[in-house]
Amino acid sequence: MRYALLIKGSPFSSRACHSALTFAQAIIANSKHQLLGVFFYQDSVLIGNKLNQVARDEFNIQTAWQVFGQTNNIPLSLCIAAAVGRGVINETESQRYEETVATLADGFTLEGLGSLVALMNDSDKLITFN
Amino acid sequence: MTTLIHITSSPYQGLAAKEGLELALVLATFEQPVAFAFSGAGVALLLNEQQSSHQHGKALYKMLPSFEFYDIDKLYVPAIEVEGLSISPLATPVTHTEWQDILTRHACVLRF
C-alpha cells in the first residue's frame, strides 16, 4: 500500500506531528508498505521554523522529523502559502519579501498545494493528522 | 474520485475554513472533482448578509459565487442545521440520511 500523510495540527498545541511520525515509522518498518511523502498544512508548518528552541530535556519533534526524512529519503513538504503566512520562509521567499533572514529548517521544502494534489493522486491512502 | 472538503470551523474562528477553501480551489484547478460539506460552526460561511470587517479576516462568503468557475456546484449542509436561516442559494440542504451517505461515500474526506 502506498501512503501519503497530511499533517494539519500545530507541533505545539496538538500531537498531530508526533502521532504522524509514529505512523510514518510504522509504514517504513513494514516492507509491504511505502511512504510517498509528507505534506504539512495549516499550523503544522510551524514545525519547519528553524528558530524554534526546545528545552534540552524535551523531545524535539522537528529534529525527529528531519532525521526520519533524511534517513528514509522521504520528502517533507510545507504548504508555501501556510508557511510564509506564519513566518517560515526559505532563501527565495526571504529575498522576495525583502527580509534579512530565512527561517526554514533543513530537511523541509516549501511546496504549493499542487504537490499535495499530486501526492493524493499517486498514493492509495492519504492519512490526515489534526 | 471526488474529494469532500468538510468545513466545520467558523470562518471567524481562525484560518481553518480559509485553508480548506484554498485547498478545494487548488484541487479544482488540477481538475480533481471537489464537493463541500458544511456543518457545525462551518455553516456560518453560508449565511447571507454577513457584515464582516477587514479585522474579521478575509470575507470568505464572497468566494462562494466564484465556485461555479471551478465547476464546484455540490455544497451540502444538513437541513436541520439551517432551518429558518437565510443561506446561500448555492448550498443544498439535505436530510439526515442523505448527509450520512455524503460523508461515507467519498473516499477522501478532509475536515477543516
Question: Would you kindly provide a written description of the structure presented here, covering whatever features stand out?
Answer:
By secondary structure, chain A is an alpha/beta fold. Chain A has one domain: Hypothetical Protein Ychn, Chain: A (3-Layer(aba) Sandwich). Chain A is 37% helix and 20% strand. Chain A contains 5 helices and 5 strands; from the N terminus they run βαβαβααβαβ. Chain A has a 5-stranded parallel β-sheet, with helices on both faces. Chain B has 112 residues and is α/β, with parallel strands linked by helices. Chain B has a single domain, classed as DsrEFH-like (Hypothetical Protein Ychn, Chain: A), CATH 3.40.1260. Helices cover 21% and strands 19% of the residues of chain B. A 5-stranded parallel β-sheet of chain B has the order 4-3-2-1-5. Chain B starts with a strand and ends with a strand. The mean pLDDT of chain B is 95. The chains are: A alpha/beta (130), B alpha/beta (112). The interface between A and B is medium-sized, with 16 and 15 residues.
Q: Residue share in helices of chain B?
A: 10-25%
CATH-derived topology of chain A: Hypothetical Protein Ychn, Chain: A
Largest interface: A-B, 16 and 15 residues
Shape of chain B: globular
| Helix-strand topology string of chain B | EHEEEHE
- Tally of domains of chain B: 1
Oligomeric nature of the chains: heterodimer
CATH third-tier fold name of chain B: Hypothetical Protein Ychn, Chain: A
Beta percentage of chain A is: 15-25%
Poorly predicted tracts of residues of chain A: none
- CATH architecture label of chain A: 3-Layer(aba) Sandwich
Largest sheet of chain A: 5 strands, parallel
What would CATH call the architecture of chain B?
3-Layer(aba) Sandwich
> How many beta-strand segments of chain B?
5
CATH class of chain A: Alpha Beta
What is the name of the CATH class of chain B? Alpha Beta
Structural class of chain A comes to alpha/beta
